[in-house]
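Hi all, posting the design record for the shared folder.

TITLE: backbone redesign
STEP: 1 of 1
STRUCTURE INPUT:
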């Protein structure tokens, strides 16, 4: 269960279809970007993460370690180093009512089929969880390895070693509320039916190649993400972050680590910071 609560945060970044072909890339392939200019005394850095990955595929690029060492603070989507936030995540993994009481007979049958197909359990065993928690369990199972690693936890460990403070760009409750606003139960169940090993394999392939544009295009595939969902889960959150990041960067050099899909796109963090007057430079291998 401990790992489950760590992986709840996969729900927001990378929980979508990977069936589309990436469009022509406008950004160079890099998960690490330097932010400078616009009055900053020291550069800050953006690092795009994949929230969970098998140990055999985990890569901590030297460029990321070097950039992290230059900064004074770690900023994640959520402060997973905060015990209060983690306790909230555990609490919100449980539904207000059992799924068996809130879902229709067809919805329950569909979930039962998905769970049995993936060997995750039965609806009766997971009845007290939310659909979002069921999604996390399906992703964990689909990666097919016993040694899942989490970039956020790796950076928290590095922050602890160097006595760097950790903060979150938003709260657990906020993040899960965004998800709740974005999908109806039918839409969520339809998505659960798509989760499999192939999806996870393609996601990891794109991430290791550092193709942030490709990851973004996969995420906004129209069959899985409506315009409204994209606005809630990506665009609005990106805009909110970019409003609070300048003050943080003005005070000190910050290492921002969040889902890689938030980097790219017209309304991605890279472009929004450029529009705000900052210089963004990809840090290549």
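Okay, here is what came back for every position:
SEQUENCE:
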């Amino acid at each position: 269960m401990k790992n489950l609560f760590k992986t709840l945060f996969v729900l927001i970044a990378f929980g979508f279809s990977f069936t589309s072909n990436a469009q022509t890339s406008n950004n160079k392939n890099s998960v690490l970007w330097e932010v400078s200019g616009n009055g900053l005394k020291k550069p800050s850095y953006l690092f795009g993460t994949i929230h969970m990955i098998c140990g055999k595929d985990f890569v901590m690029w030297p460029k990321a370690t070097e950039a992290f060492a230059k900064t004074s603070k770690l900023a994640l989507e959520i402060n997973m180093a905060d015990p209060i936030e983690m306790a909230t995540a555990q609490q919100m993994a449980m539904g207000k009512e059992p799924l068996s009481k809130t879902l229709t007979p067809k919805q329950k049958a569909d979930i039962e089929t998905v769970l049995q197909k993936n060997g995750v359990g039965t609806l009766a065993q997971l009845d007290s969880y939310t659909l979002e928690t069921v999604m996390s369990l399906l992703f964990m199972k689909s990666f097919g390895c016993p040694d899942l690693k989490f970039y956020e936890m790796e950076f928290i460990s590095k922050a602890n070693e160097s006595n760097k403070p950790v903060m979150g760009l938003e709260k657990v409750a906020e993040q899960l509320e965004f998800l709740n606003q974005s999908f109806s139960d039918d839409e969520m169940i339809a998505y659960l039916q798509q989760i499999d090993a192939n999806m996870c394999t393609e996601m990891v392939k794109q991430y290791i190649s550092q193709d942030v544009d490709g990851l973004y295009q996969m995420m906004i595939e129209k069959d899985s993400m409506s315009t409204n969902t994209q606005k809630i889960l990506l665009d609005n959150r990106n805009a909110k972050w970019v409003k609070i990041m300048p003050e943080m960067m003005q005070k000190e050099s910050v290492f921002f680590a969040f889902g890689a899909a938030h980097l790219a796109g017209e309304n991605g963090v890279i472009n929004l910071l450029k529009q705000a007057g900052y210089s963004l430079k990809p840090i290549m291998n």
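COMMENT: Residues 1-25 have pLDDT under 50 and may be disordered.
Let me know if anyone wants the other runs.
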